[in-house]
Amino acid sequence: MEGGAVPASAPLPSVAAMSTDARSLLAAPGAPAGGRGRSALRRIGLGALVLLGLAAAVGAVLVGALRGGGAASSVPLAPATSSPAPAAPSLVLVHVLGAVARPGLYELAEGDRVVDAVAAAGGFTAEADQAALNLAQVLADAQQVQVPRVGEAPPAPPGGAAAGTAAGGLVNLNTADLAALDTLPRVGPSTAQKILDWRESNGPFTSVDDLLAVSGIGEATLEGLRDLVTV
């Protein structure tokens, strides 16, 4: 056999016939590759488990959020209530006259005072007797605020005694005017005027019994007036 060539007809040695060294050489290259593969598979498996765990956690969070949102949306909302509008302030109508710039009727807020009524009427004139008024008095509806001039008699205080009305509410026959006398029972404007005429013609009344001298007043009327008038 030339050149050391193996004849084609010569059979190849079987693996079993190989020596231990030869088998170890054949197996050695595959051994490291198998170890690295198993390690890589283990790493892939662990990574997959981690990813699956994260996905499960995220899914649980999303499901909880969706369920919570659904529960919140199902809670009925309380009906909206609107605050009541503030009530408009009450007004009083007063009549301001006398020594003011613009006498007349004025609407003012409830709780305003005489000084506010005078201001609404343009203020005092130069001849006004300012000291004759109680500027701090609270106004009443339908009140008349009369500002006197210097030298004039001050007006009767609102709500106070009328002209000719004595202490205790008795009507003074010698100082009462027509309006005061007209407030007496069974004494109308005609009889009140007769009382004034008698007083002017005969002088002051000296007693309540003098009313019998007035035309139209008899015993019955006198008895009804006796406890209401004075002289």
TrEMBL record:
Question: What terms describe the molecular function in GO for this protein?
Answer: DNA binding
Q: Some GO term, biological process aspect, for this entry: which one? A: DNA repair
Origin superkingdom: Bacteria
| SUPFAM superfamilies in the record | RuvA domain 2-like
User: Pfam families under this entry?
Assistant: HHH_3, SLBB
Q: Where is the Helix-hairpin-helix DNA-binding motif class domain?
A: 179-198, 209-228
Report if keyword Membrane is assigned. Answer: yes
So which residues are the signal peptide here?
Answer: none
List where the protein spans the membrane.
Answer: 44-66
**Tagged with keyword Transmembrane:** yes
**Any GO CC annotation of this UniProt entry:** type II protein secretion system complex
Q: Which UniProt keywords apply?
A: Membrane, Transmembrane, Transmembrane helix
Q: Which InterPro entries match?
A: Competence_ComEA_HhH, Endo/Exo/Phosphatase_dom_1, Hlx-hairpin-Hlx_DNA-bd_motif, RuvA_2-like, Soluble_ligand-bd
Designated name of the protein: Helix-hairpin-helix DNA-binding motif class 1 domain-containing protein
UniProt organism field: Arenivirga flava
